[in-house]
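Researcher: Go.
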Amino acid sequence: MKKPILFLALASMVAFTNCSKDDDDTDPIVGTWVSESSITPEGGETTTYKDIWIFEEDHTGAYTDTTNGQVNRETDFIWTKTDEGYEVDYAEEGVRNNETFTIGELLGETTLEKGGALIAMKE
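Model: Structure:
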């Protein structure tokens, strides 16, 4: 009887020590951030704008700007964490100027902010 109990105890220890790490160690900027808006002029058709930032754990990322689902611009970027927030350095000139973002919260949702203004929501 002692052997099965000892085996179960060892198996439990192995199972708990082999569990993957939680995402608690991941920087809060890592993930996909989306800004979406629509404009419908009186008597006109609705135009939908969408900006997407994807921040990777390896400090790289991708930015895409679309209008009505059509890609206008896209570029890669690198990001670094500083005392001021997260500096984003875009690879392609003219797509966007380099920016510094901070993380905030609005109505229980995590937000990407620039200069205190809401830029995007985390998906």
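Model: Residues 17 and 61 are 32 Å apart (CA to CA).
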